[in-house]
Design goal:
heterodimer; B: 182 residues; mainly alpha
Chain lengths: 300, 182
């Protein structure tokens, strides 16, 4: 079952990449039209930005993601013995190499895993997680993260994160069109005033604005579709490693009751074990509800 | 023509045979590796215990019987032969250590000492690693034994005398594998 899961994850990576690239292209067209009055330049520029983001992410994902989330690496067991030893245990029992370990200064308990392969994986935990959880609960959480590593979830979520970040950048750029873009357009309008084509221009304008508004939502939905089911799988994987569903159940209860994180990068939200933003908009949830996850664990 | 077919079939069987043989060796290797994992942790724990005993001894009125039980159990682990006996001795030592740490709760000075806290974390870590490497050993053993019994690898295993590996009994307070279903 695990092997099929890994295979389907690898297949989905490709589908996901294509879907996301199309979205990046469409957003590029919209931004290009608004800022430069050129659909083609926009598409090419956006695809370049997307490609650069993806390449940076794939080659150096751990450092980039950890910088985005203010993670500090620890390299010795002494710096956080419980966390370090728990990660060691889970890596051993999952038959994975020891990942890099990071700590995020935040009182809200949370954790995530990233990297482009099990060999280059990293696990991060907040200081809140370390103070709130006992050793068994910590084991459940780290077991969940190591399951993401083992299932290759980390590679998919990392690529999705890169493209979501590119889309955020593009729409931010595009949302300033009335500042940067108006000059170019009015000049253009003067030239074109005698010809027709105003209908088309209005249509393109409306289309572009719609894309700017909807793209971040669509990007969020794609990320959601990828991450939601994986959370259940990683919960099951954690129990497979620790042989103790109770650990994870009580850890999830604590995670569910916690307050949101102070300073979290929103495109990384889907990586965390529990939604760090704690916002309640169900259609775009990156995580299944904690109660549902607990209910599934209780059935094991 | 028939000769070519016969040679082809023989070559094919030889290739499959070698493949199965190699995979059996790989599986057997995994069980041996996971056993040596346990062994490393047992040695590590035995190295930590003299430190612990010395640290605790400093607290004059600390129960002598508790310390003696730990020292004896440690010696038993050293002397035990074979996986089953070793793990039985190891479980005894785990029990003795658990008792020692429970008794230590009554000694606030001892609990406050940095040395003791560090040893406690180290020993907890080693105990966990023993439990998890034992789990891993049983998983690799199950994989290997399944390979020995299933067709066609059982034929190759029979001819080349691959012996089944023995499971390590898990202490009763540890949980069974929950069944994971989707």
């Amino acid at each position: 079952m695990l092997y099929e899961q890994i295979q389907s994850n690898k297949r989905r990576t490709i589908v996901l990449l294509v879907g996301f690239l199309i979205l990046v292209g469409v957003v590029g067209a919209a931004v290009g039209y608004l800022l430069l009055d050129s659909l083609e330049t926009g598409v090419i520029g956006a695809l370049l930005i997307g490609a650069v983001y993806t390449v940076i992410m794939i080659s150096n994902s751990t450092n980039v993601v950890m910088a985005m989330n203010h993670g500090q690496e620890i390299t010795q067991a002494d710096q956080a013995p419980e966390l370090w030893h728990t990660v060691e245990d889970m890596a051993m029992v999952a038959q994975l190499p020891m990942p890099r370990v990071f700590i995020i200064q935040d009182d809200s308990p949370n954790a995530f895993a990233t990297g482009n392969s099990p060999k280059n994986a990293a696990v991060a935990a907040t200081t809140g997680l370390l103070s709130v959880m006992d050793r068994n609960e910590l084991e459940g959480v780290i077991g969940h993260e190591m399951s993401h590593v083992r299932n290759y979830d980390i590679r998919i979520s990392t690529i999705a994160l890169a493209l979501a970040a590119a889309i955020t950048l593009l729409t931010n750029l595009g949302s300033h069109w009335w500042i940067f873009g108006s000059g170019g357009r009015s000049r253009d309008n003067r030239d074109n005033n005698n010809g027709g084509g105003n209908g088309l221009q209005v249509l393109l304008l409306v289309f572009s604005i719609l894309v700017m508004v909807l793209a971040p939502l669509v990007a969020g939905m794609i990320q959601m579709a990828i991450s939601r089911n994986r959370e259940y799988l990683a919960d099951a994987g954690s129990v497979e490693l620790t042989r103790n569903p109770q650990e994870l159940i009580s850890a999830l209860r604590k995670l569910g009751a916690a307050k949101p994180m102070q300073d979290v990068d929103s495109s990384s939200a889907a990586l965390y074990i529990s939604n760090p933003l704690k916002n309640k908009k169900h259609l775009f949830d990156t995580h299944p509800p904690i109660e549902e996850r607990i209910a599934r664990l209780e059935k094991m | 023509m028939t000769l070519i077919v016969i040679i082809g079939v023989i070559v094919l069987i030889a290739i499959i045979w070698v493949g199965i043989y190699n995979s059996l060796v790989k599986y057997r290797m995994q069980t041996q590796e996971s056993w040596s994992q346990i062994d490393v942790q047992l040695k590590r724990r035995n190295d930590l215990i003299p430190n612990l005993v010395n640290t605790v001894k400093g607290y004059a009125d600390f129960e002598k019987t508790t310390l003696q039980a730990v020292t004896d159990a440690r010696a038993n682990v050293n002397n035990a032969q074979g996986p089953a006996a070793t793990m039985a001795a190891s479980d005894q030592l785990t029990g003795a250590l658990t008792h020692l740490f429970a008794v230590a709760e009554a000694y606030p000075d001892l609990k406050a000492s940095a040395n003791f806290t560090k040893l406690q974390e180290e020993l907890t870590n080693t105990e966990n690693k023993i439990a998890y490497s034992r789990q891993l050993f049983n998983t690799t053993t199950a994989n290997y034994n399944a390979k020995l019994q299933s067709f066609p690898s059982n034929i190759v295993a029979g001819i080349h005398h691959f012996e089944p590996s023995e499971f390590i009994a898990v202490p009763e307070n540890e949980k069974e594998v929950p069944t994971v279903k989707f």
